[in-house]
Amino acid sequence: MAKQSSKESAEFQQMRDLALKQLLSGQSLTGEGGVFTPLLKQFLDSALDAEMSSHLEEESRDKKAPKNKRNGKRSKTVKTIAGEIEVTTPQDRNSSFEPSIIPKRETVLADNMAPKILSLYSKGMSLADISEHIKELYDVSISNQTLSGIIDRITPEVKLWQNRALDSVYHPIVWMDAIHFKVKGEDRRTESRAVYNILALNKEGKKELIGMYISESEGANFWLQVLTDLKSRGVEDILIACTDNLKGFSEAILSVFPATEIQKCVIHQVRGSIKYVASKDQKEFMRDLKLVYQAMNKEIAEDELLNLEEKWGKKYPIVIESWQRNWSELSAYFSYDPMIRKMIYTTNAVEGFHRQIRKVTKNKSVFPNDMSVLKLIYLALNNISKKWTMPVKNWAMTAQQLRIKFGDRMPIDL
């Protein structure tokens, strides 16, 4: 026993010295010729052998199954982060053995490399860039087809996430907006797609994306489907919905959640207004308009809106009429103190999320299909949401104010 221990100690010391030498020389410990590469081969061979033993034992218990036994081994080269490794897969007489650690016809140890590949893809790298990066880092060549196969494996995960159950009060505040992409249609023509995103604050005041849907274009009709789906997934109430000024959007929300207070995005309204004001008047008009939406309270804001009409109504009647027609939903934020006003008077929260998504998708002018868009957004979301671990600023005070205004509709755990 002492000799055995001494022998193992000598082998360990030899491996340690070689590893240190390779490390100091800058050589990869897991690449070709790396000291740890043989260990991975030994592990894989042992694991495959154990899988075969388990398979034969299970078949032996099935009296109806034909008798089976080992029938030699077959070698194949597998690509891993440790480089290319030749493994020996046991064969059986009935050819019924289906190894799980390295499936048949699999030449890449996907479970070994998938996390790295998905991480690179989630940062916006193209398949060609990922392949080049892995080649430089691990001296492993992977085709675009293999990379696509690995990325496609998250499709069920994306669908499961899209259809997950939601809390009944989701949420005190939600922001709804769409982001647009170009996608290859069924006839291979480039088409536009709108991805509908619903960003929310949950009961703890933390951000969470609760919905992601894709459609050919943005419209109130599809938003109605989105909201109906949210309800079917468990949402019973939304306190405040912050939206852009899409026609019919408010009606769609209220048809599903009739008690929701709607705050239309003031900045969208301002941008829409200024487009119809002559360039020579824009600076002065904006100065007057700011007196409306930056007023201290709703009463002052309405006085300034009257002043705006008196001064500009004859010249820009369509613009003034739009503010008057939408005023009840543009001015909802005046019911709250500055902390909440800042959160809800624009859709900046979801637009900020979209800006982060754009950073990831900026190099992809056209996506091959709808699911490829959703997969990349989902992977990017996993990175972005790592920063959503804390409640928004002053959430304790915000929650109390919402409780006072909405009563039992705003649950607070005390």
Automatic annotation (TrEMBL):
DNA-binding listed as a keyword: yes
Keywords: DNA recombination, DNA-binding, Transposable element, Transposition
Region Disordered, annotated ranges: 54-77
InterPro entries per the UniProt record, alphabetical: Transposase_mutator
Segments of skewed composition (Basic and acidic residues): 54-65
A molecular function GO annotation: DNA binding
Keyword Ribonucleoprotein: no
Start-end of Basic residues biased regions: 66-77
Any one GO biological process: DNA transposition
Coiled coil residues, start to end: none
Transmembrane segments: none
The organism's place on the tree of life at top rank: Bacteria
Function: Required for the transposition of the insertion element.
Classification via NCBIfam families: transpos_IS256
Protein family membership: Belongs to the transposase mutator family.
PANTHER family reported in the protein's UniProt record: MUTATOR FAMILY TRANSPOSASE, TRANSPOSASE FOR INSERTION SEQUENCE ELEMENT IS1081
Name of protein: Mutator family transposase
